[in-house]
Amino acid sequence: MPARLFKPRHRLAASRRLLLSPKQLKVMKTEQRIVGQALARVAKATPLARVVQRRAAGHKALAPGVAEPSPRRSKGIALVLALFLGTLGAHQFYLGYVGRGFVYLGVGALTLFFATLGILGIVFGGAYAGFFLVAILLSVLLEAWLLSDIVRIITGSLTPKDGEYSDRFF
Description:
Elements: H1 9-18, H2 22-45, H3 47-56, H4 75-85, H5 90-95, H6 98-124, H7 130-155
Helix pairs in contact: 4-7, 6-7
């Protein structure tokens, strides 16, 4: 086959432009610009484009089809959860620190277990009365940790795991 049939596309496009009048060439460029703008608008709406935009903005990229991250957390709600359900670690779960929340739950469960054994030892008499002292010690440690978390929430040094607090208190 002759070599001239295998011209690169850009050379073919250039040779076609030579056959167009200046007015036709201007119309073709305008159409290309309009189509390019429409494609850009469609590309911005796709999930993959949102990932690219988020990565360019410095955010963690989400896979296509994954929901956007939750909105910023409220400092007031974190404080109320710490005050009323703090020994269960509810404020830690709310702020995104799931591991710390489970540690709160575990220490609370151990405190309850040792307190139960201690009370049974006191009521029925036996060697289990010493467990009540262990329960008191665990309870004091848990409450001290909770108090430090409450102070850190108020001062703003205990921030949500995935960002910052919202501007509003509640």
